[in-house]
Amino acid sequence: QHSPSQATLSSLFVLLLMPLSFEDLTLEFESVGCEKGSDMECAPGAQIENNERRVSSVVLVLASPVFAAMLRSGMQEVQKKHVKIASEIGTARQFDDFYKFLLPIVGRGLSVTEDNVDGVLAFSDYYQVGKLKDECVQVLLTLPASVDRLLQARRYGLQLQYQRCVADLAVDRSEPDLKRLAEFHPDIMADIVRIMQHNSSKFDQIRQMKPTLEQVAALAYTSIDSTTKKDGRRVDEWVREDLR
């Protein structure tokens, strides 16, 4: 068994000095769109989303080295039990999906899915919850490649997912967002172009091999006994048609 790290022990020591309260911390999420407290006008009848969440600092400290470091540093926001989360990190609803995985008992029965992977990835990356981020990667690798998935992989440093998306988009040249990619992310587009060039070179090599392959096939056909039949057909004719 591994001994607790010094950072973990320090965090636990700080926690022991804190008042015992489960949901002792408020997270305030920067408003995006039609949310409670947003300056944007909401359509009549639209549901207004609460952009504050009450959470347990103990749960966050035990799961996240980032939050543990914030606690040890004596950060004013943490001391006041009110932390603001920028919209670039994620929304309150996405945090809900992430936080459920951290809770004892409840989190044990959850799985990362296509529906929640974006939010869980965003916050597991921000709070450096490595195991949960790895689960997100495994789900993303099963989903269709797209420019959005490619940009997501680039943002969160998902190298395997990035390479997969580049390879798939290099083949699927009908992807409409490639034009947008070329305009706003020329370095990423350059990676796709390199794979395209590599694929084109491989196709040229195959085309150059065609005469040799045809000669080998002809020799194979002539070596088959034309009098032998299978299911009422000559075997040499059956092989020639099947391999065509």
How would you sum up this structure, described in words?
With 244 residues, this protein is mainly α. Helix content is 56%, strand content 7%. It has twelve helices and five strands. It has a three-stranded mixed β-sheet with strand order 2-1-3.
Class based on secondary structure composition and strand pairing: mainly alpha
Compute the separation of the termini in Å: 61 Å
Query: What is the overall shape?
Result: elongated
State the helical fraction: 55-70%
Quaternary state of the chains: single chain
Rg calc:
28 Å
User: Strand order of the main beta sheet, please?
Assistant: 2-1-3
Average pLDDT, to the nearest integer? Answer: 77
Total strands: the figure is 5
Largest sheet geometry: 3 strands, mixed
Helix/strand order, N-terminal first: HEEHHHEHHHHHHHEEH
